[in-house]
Amino acid sequence: MPVWWGIFAYMMIVSIFGMAMYKAKVQNATLGPVDDSSSVVNYKSIGLFFALATFALLVYFAGQRSFIFDSTDYQYAYENYYTDELDQITEIIQGKAGGKGPLYCIVLVIFKHFTHGTYNDWFTFVALIQCVSIALFLYKYSINFTYSIYFFFTTSTFLWLVNGMRQFLAVAVILFFVDWIKERKTIPFIIVIIVAYFIHSSSLFWLPVYFIINYEPWSRKFIIFSIILTVALFLYSRSSFVEDTDYAYLSNLSNHNGVNPFRVLVMAIPSIIAFARRKIINEVASPFVKVWVNLSVITTECYIVGMFTSGVMGRMPMYFQLFNLMLLPWLLKNAFDESMGKSILLASLIGYFAYFWYDMYIAGNGVYNSIPLDLHF
């Protein structure tokens, strides 16, 4: 528990200091009502150095963890690969080495062969990739970096680094190429999805999502296709096909009773606000911001499915949930007048902090263990 609180405090202090120190305000990414960046004044809330530095402590402690959540499985899997030869890569490609996520396994083998590192070194390497991806993502698009970090931490999104690490690595890989969504570089982005598939098969869910997120938010086409997608996801999660995927072990766990409805409500707040202010959004939002709105809706739908599927689909939202980190501060600044925006901001700070307290202490997700650091909370 003290570890997560300490990291939270560090990230807030560094991000606030970074925002205070940053002077240059021109941002290349267009967040206004048109795509021509030369005609819109945009703002970047922090410099690149402080954006990356904000995640430094999280990388360190995520890398030093031991035996928390599903990290135990990743520890044992790491130990099962030997370091003398690289011929086991051929075995992985041929499917003879066992395990899922062949690209993940190949990179692991190469890392262990050349570094002879421990599983903590591997965890640190993966956490570094994940956090750099998120930092660059928020650096490019968040209009309030500190608030995005606050949202990231108090909604316990950071726990994906230590619970569901391989899937979150696939998320991070896709996130590096998020500009291709905005630029509609379809073929290159599909190639990225295929690459991510070989890390975690669930990344293929991005394919149908990619082709519907450019519809107008709340339009008939988007609503119809998103409902079809949700129903298909629900049926898939209930089918025997799950047993042949990366979610097989989750479907066999008796203690997975679905996503907590309280969490579903918390994560639905950005899409609820977007719906309430949909007329203003249609007038002032850029096409890419509208994509955020659609991804926020899909995030909510995934969480709703997760309530009724024994937790099997509870991890699917991580592919789209991070877009809420930019959407919510954008909504508070652009979809309300200044007074109302500040009031909702204050209410959200209190509400999300209360949820974080609940998740850490009541839901029991505040555990942290580290053998190298001799920490056990």
Describe the structure.
The structure is a single chain. The protein is mainly alpha-helical. It has one domain (2-364). It contains 20 helices and two strands. The chain has helices spanning 2-21, 48-53, 56-63, 71-80, 88-93, 102-115, 119-141, 145-154, 165-175, 179-182, 186-197, 206-210, 220-238, 248-251, 261-276, 278-284, 287-307, 318-321, 324-334, 338-362; strands at residues 369-370, 375-376. Helix 8 (145-154) packs parallel to helix 20, helix 13 runs parallel beside helix 17 (287-307) and helix 15 (261-276) crosses helix 19.
Total number of distinct structural domains? 1
Radius of gyration: 20 Å
Helix/strand-derived category reads mainly alpha
Number of helices: 20
- Measured between the Cα atoms of the first and last residue, the distance is 6 Å
The backbone outline, from C-alpha atoms, is: globular
Lateral strand order in the biggest sheet: 1-2
Low-confidence stretches: 26-41
Indicate the percent of residues in helices. Answer: 55-70%
What's the average pLDDT? 87
Percent strand equals under 5%
- Element order: H for helix, E for strand: HHHHHHHHHHHHHHHHHHHHEE
Largest sheet: 2 strands, antiparallel
Number of strands: 2
